Structure formats: structure tokens, C-alpha cells
Amino acid sequence: MSDPLRFNLFTMNSVEHVSPGTWTIPGDQSHRYTDREYWTDVARTAERAGFDAIFFADVRGIYDVYDDDRDPAIRRAIQTPSNAPQALVPAMAEVTDDIGFAITRSTSYVHPYQLARELSTLDHVTDGRIAFNVVTSYLESAAENLGLGDRMDHDERYDRADEFMDVCYRLWEDSWEDDAVVRDADSGTYTDPEKVHAIDYEGDYFSIPGPHGCEPSPQRTPVIYQAGSSDRGREFAATNAEGVFVSQPTKAATRDYIEDMRERVASHGRDPDSLKFFPGIVVITGETDEVAREKHETYTEHISVEGTLSLLSGFIDMDLSELEPDQVVEHIETDAIRGTINAFTKNDPDREWTVAEVAQFAGLGTTSPVIVGGPETVADELESWRDEIGVDGFNLKEVTRPGSLADFVEYVVPVLRERGLIRESYEGETLRENLFGRRGLPEGHPGGDA
């Protein structure tokens, strides 16, 4: 039997994430993002279903590219207001035992010495259930608000991210020996200083003597996720990622992406099968296909076109208000998320997208496919992605909250379990053990060689 599929709930500590306007659907509870009980209920539900992780997106800055104005994004709640995701983890970990927590943090706007400490701490208090989703950030408004002036250009952000990760690997993997903590009350020695080492890192962006301030956490290095889609981003992911969040709108584009990434991973001396692929997916389901179609129709009616175009304009750093609705979106190189513009201009050469088509498609889950159907229909489609495309699992995107998760758990998970497509119980003690069946980083990973 093939390995079961893996599932992460892709969410954000905000009102809106990737389905603009759906907070207006009657019964939606997105406004409860400030409520700790909302998040602990989400964690319990996802763990009961056998999900691997709650995968938190995050963003710095406010979307102000569309119409050269931040008001549309603020009015439509486009990832604003939002709170920091990592602050939710201790509460969610307290009510669960196994599910992991993937935290998005930017290598452009924090210091690696500080972030290594924060993630080591979270890995300790969750007993090894932390993943680090590495992003380089794309909004100009973030750089301005953090006092950095202009946003770094696209490739330089990845150059800094390379160094950032090198520093983190040295701190997490090399600084403390496994038996450094001796806790010898007779001699009054808690830690053997001979087994705690400086890293003496000198680079173009960072100069850090070390050592790390934290003793080794259960995983040492958190599970590394990345979503590189541009050429530079793919190289970064091929070097560093253990799991890739794939943002492609079609099966064909996803298949091409996976093939390309496996070749890149091999060129870096890593086993191509050591990298797992998680496409974003939107599932709209119910008791039957007909009920699911009715829900889809309702959800579509609530899509905010202005909100969607505000979100996408920020993603691609192109003011879509300047284009006519029937105008074809042309490829341009920007310093924002190149993967998003590639998804609609390059990755499927047989398809041209107009602004109106992009807004309609992206209104539910942005660049991800949407599956609409009853439990058997959805299970068939998810299974086909594994068998035909070679994906390892999915980042499940929400339309309603917590309705999308609740529907998936109530209707689809029982069918997946009958088919052996989702776990019955957790196998390992840490997130990495549950995802990959190993304790440490894979062979050939730069963290393992740090």
C-alpha cells in the first residue's frame, strides 16, 4: 500500500487569508481570530482528523499596491487586521499531543540569532512539534514600517536568506553537544562549558560569534518548509526545504514543478525523495455532490473582487486596477512573489488569463485548485493527485472558518480512512518523525553538514 496522504490546515491569524469576502458568509467565524478558544478548538479538530500540522501564513505590512491605496485592503480585511502566529502555539499545544505547528517567519525582517532562540523555545515547549516556513517577504510597506527604507530586491533577499539559514543551522546543530547539560548538583555544574561551542560566523550580512543560548530542543532544527516558485526561490527550496508548499493552479503545472524540483534537489546532492510536496487545495464538500455545488455557488457569490485584486496586486507588485477586466495579464518581473505571476502567465502556456478570470479563480484560495463534491468525489480527486502527479499531501485552504475544516473532517476524512489515505494515529514523537519517519535532517541537507 502507498503511503497515506499528509494534510496541513493552511490558515492565518487574521480575518481574511486567501478567500477575500468569505467572512461575510452567514455563520462564518473568521472574526474570532482573536479568540484563544477558537484556535484551541481548531487544533483539537485537526488533530482528531490526523492532520500533520496547523500551517500558519503570515505577512508584514499592508497591501497598498492596488489603486495605490491601502484603503481597499483595510476595508475588505485583506490579511489586515492580523496577529502574530507564533503567539498562538503554546495554547494550541497545551490541548493537543501530536499535531505540529508550522510558523511563517521572514528572513528579511528578523535576526537569525533571535529567531533561532524563539524557535528552539517553541520546539521545547511543544515537545518537538515546530516547523519553520521560510519566507523572504514581498511588501514594500513592510520594509518602510520596519525602518529599512526600500525593500531589498528579489534575489538579494534570497542571498540574505541563504546566510540566515547557515547561521541558524550552526546554532541549532553545532553549538551544543547532546550531552552538554550534565545537571550535576554535587559539583554545582549544570552545563559542561567544554561542550558548548561558539560558531564564529562571518558573512556578508551577519557576524555572529555564538554560542546558541538554548540547549538542544527535541528536533534541534525545526522541520523546514518553503514555497520557492521563482528560479531563485526554487534553488533555495531545493537546498533547504524538507517540505515544499506548492502554489500552482493546475495538475499539469504542479507536475512540471515537482519534476523540476526533484532534479534541483538531486543536483544539490540530496535524495529527491527526501523532499515532500504539499499543493495548496480548496475543498468544498457536503453530504452529496449537489450539496457541495450549492455551497460553492453561495461562496462564489460572496467573493470580493476588490479584495481579491488588492491581495493579488500585493502578491505580484502590479496595480491590477490599471488593467481592464478583459485584458490579458502579461508576464512581468517584479520584486514581489514571482511565483504568483508565473502561475497565470508562464506555467501553463496553453492558457491566457484575463484580469476578470484571475479575480474569479483566485477568489477562493488564490492560485490553488478548487475541488467541489461529496465525500467520495473529493477522495477520488485527492487520490488522483497522489497517483497521477506524485504529491505527498496537501495544504488545505479555508473558505469558511471553521466550516471548511469541519466539513472536511466530518465528510471526507472517514472516506480517506476507509481507503487508508490518512493516518489512524500518530507514529512518532516529533513532527519530523511523523512526517518523514526520521529524527534529524536528511542526508545531504546543509543543516546536517553545518
Automatic annotation (TrEMBL):
What are the entry keywords? Flavoprotein, FMN, Monooxygenase, Oxidoreductase
Luciferase-like domain mapped to chain residues: 30-392
Q: Which domain of life is it from?
A: Archaea
Which is an annotated GO molecular function term of this record? oxidoreductase activity, acting on paired donors, with incorporation or reduction of molecular oxygen
Q: Per its UniProt record, what PANTHER family does this chain match? A: ALKANESULFONATE MONOOXYGENASE-RELATED, C2H2 FINGER DOMAIN TRANSCRIPTION FACTOR (EUROFUNG)-RELATED
NCBIfam families from the entry? Answer: FMN_nitrolo
The family assignment reads:
Belongs to the NtaA/SnaA/DszA monooxygenase family.
Name the chain's protein: 5,10-methylene tetrahydromethanopterin reductase
Q: Which organism is it from?
A: Natronobacterium lacisalsi AJ5
What phylogenetic lineage does the species belong to? Answer: Archaea, Methanobacteriati, Methanobacteriota, Stenosarchaea group, Halobacteria
